[in-house]
């Protein structure tokens, strides 16, 4: 029987869902889904000054758009503060923690002296082994009684074994003098209480793991499997920041990237399965494991993201793509398409989605559907509608009135008409594109005619033919 896997994503609600956080959530989601496990969401809102409801909402929206559905209710870390304090008191009762009455001034004096003597500035509390009978009636913090000798080994699935000497770990504060728990304690208690078996997170937390492991061991709890993943860097090899472009997931939605494409790209950012670049969610869930995560930071590459997104758009179900296109419109504050436009877009989707990498590109290709008569050609298209071209369109229109409206018949008719005029169909294409779409670059003339239908096609040609 395989172990029951429980992973979690635990962002702080101090801003948007960062692209790095989104990848961490994705890795946790893939690992859990591939093992019939649970993927949980906890909002680490203990920093009351910086945590906001708006940021929590942005994180939830970002995860929803990315398709990373979590199991169960969202857990608020702040709401569990009473439980965190109880654990600190249990550790106090069992001798794994102690009361420390040292003031901030005393701690600073200790550190100043340590710096002057060029020794560790880790505070060594004089209260660690004090007789409880000597405790004053003053405010105190609860500190972990960390081992002073030996080593703590983090057995990490990505980084390998990481060994830290215990004399490098201080007696960290678990409970402040006002009775509030510190983040380090809260994380461990929450992960234990939520049954988390695998902690998959950024390697900026690797140093925390040693101190957190001491709490697990002090409580006699099962230590989770650690997997600390490298951070994402920009194309220049420096930590991803605003200068590299978009950071928040909602910005990628607003730029028109399909969610499936971003999921695929983020999965490949730091993890690999052979040489596979393009894959479905089902394949990612089946293939994803911790062994495939590299130790080096991954570099974000917009060109690769666009290429992957283009492949996903081309492979998408037409109705699903139309649904996501409408979601993109809503997310960017644009009005919804009418029912009639949606029907035409769905009919055109097989050729619109080819070679489009983003929804704005797809919308540009769909201009012939989204524009209403009279079509106003742009500057480049207008050049194709000179008086000679208008005359040709006037002559062509009667031939189309009785044509069978199939691709084969329309191609045959147009080629024959061009031949009669002593030219090739390619010469007719420019004026036809300008008349039907008002653009010089469009989908195939025949694709547009078939989607628009006979009446609309003839009406547009007639408008363009007028001098």
Automatic annotation (TrEMBL):
Gene3D superfamilies noted in UniProt: 1.10.10.350, HUPs (3.40.50.620)
Binding positions for ATP per the UniProt entry: 242
Gene designation per UniProt: gltX
Protein name in UniProt: Glutamate--tRNA ligase
Gene Ontology process terms (BP): glutamyl-tRNA aminoacylation
GO cellular component assignments: cytosol
Pfam families: Anticodon_2, tRNA-synt_1c
One Gene Ontology MF term: zinc ion binding
Record's keyword terms, sorted: Aminoacyl-tRNA synthetase, ATP-binding, Cytoplasm, Ligase, Nucleotide-binding, Protein biosynthesis
Reaction equation(s) it catalyzes: tRNA(Glu) + L-glutamate + ATP = L-glutamyl-tRNA(Glu) + AMP + diphosphate
Motif placement: 'HIGH' region: 11-21
Protein species of origin: Aquicoccus porphyridii
């Amino acid at each position: 029987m395989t172990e029951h896997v429980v992973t979690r994503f635990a962002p702080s609600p101090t801003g948007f869902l960062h692209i790095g956080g989104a990848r961490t959530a994705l890795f946790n989601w893939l690992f859990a889904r591939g093992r019939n496990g649970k993927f949980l969401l906890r909002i680490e809102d203990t920093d009351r000054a910086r945590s906001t409801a708006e940021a929590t909402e942005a994180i939830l929206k970002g995860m929803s758009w990315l398709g990373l559905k979590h199991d169960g209710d969202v857990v608020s870390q702040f709401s569990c503060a009473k439980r965190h304090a109880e654990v600190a008191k249990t550790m106090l009762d069992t001798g794994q923690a102690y009361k420390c009455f040292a003031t901030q001034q005393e701690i600073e004096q200790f550190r100043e002296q340590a710096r002057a003597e060029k020794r560790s500035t880790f505070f060594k509390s004089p209260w660690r082994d004090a007789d409880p009978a000597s405790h004053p009636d003053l405010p105190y913090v609860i500190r972990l009684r960390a081992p002073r000798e030996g080593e703590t080994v983090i057995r990490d699935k990505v980084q390998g074994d990481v060994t830290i000497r215990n004399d490098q770990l201080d007696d960290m504060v678990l409970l402040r003098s006002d009775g509030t728990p510190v983040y380090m304690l809260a994380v461990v208690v929450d992960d234990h209480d939520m049954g988390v078996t695998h902690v998959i997170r950024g390697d900026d937390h690797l140093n925390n793991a040693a101190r957190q492991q001491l709490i697990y061991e002090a409580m006699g709890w099962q230590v989770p499997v650690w997997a600390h993943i490298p951070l994402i860097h920009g194309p220049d090899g420096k930590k991803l920041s605003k200068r590299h472009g978009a950071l928040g997931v909602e910005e990628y939605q607003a730029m028109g990237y399909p969610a499936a494409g971003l999921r695929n790209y983020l999965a490949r950012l730091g993890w690999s399965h052979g040489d596979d670049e393009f894959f479905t969610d089902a394949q990612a869930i089946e293939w994803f494991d911790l062994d495939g995560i590299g130790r080096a930071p991954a570099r974000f590459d917009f060109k690769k993201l666009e290429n992957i997104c283009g492949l996903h758009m081309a492979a998408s179900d037409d109705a699903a793509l139309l649904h996501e296109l409408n979601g993109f419109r809503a997310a960017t504050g644009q009005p919804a398409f009418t029912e009639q436009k949606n029907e035409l877009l769905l009919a055109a989707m097989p050729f619109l989605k080819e070679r489009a990498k983003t929804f704005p590109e797809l919308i540009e290709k769909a201009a012939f559907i989204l524009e209403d008569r009279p079509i106003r050609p742009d500057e480049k298209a207008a050049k194709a509608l000179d008086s000679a071209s208008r005359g040709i369109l006037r002559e062509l229109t009667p031939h189309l009135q009785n044509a069978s409206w199939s691709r084969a018949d329309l191609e045959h008719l147009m080629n024959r008409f061009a031949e009669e005029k002593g030219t090739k169909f390619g010469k007719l294409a420019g004026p036809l594109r300008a008349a039907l779409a008002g653009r010089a670059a469009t989908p195939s003339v025949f694709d547009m005619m078939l989607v628009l239908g006979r009446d609309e096609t003839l009406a547009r040609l007639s408008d363009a033919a007028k001098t």
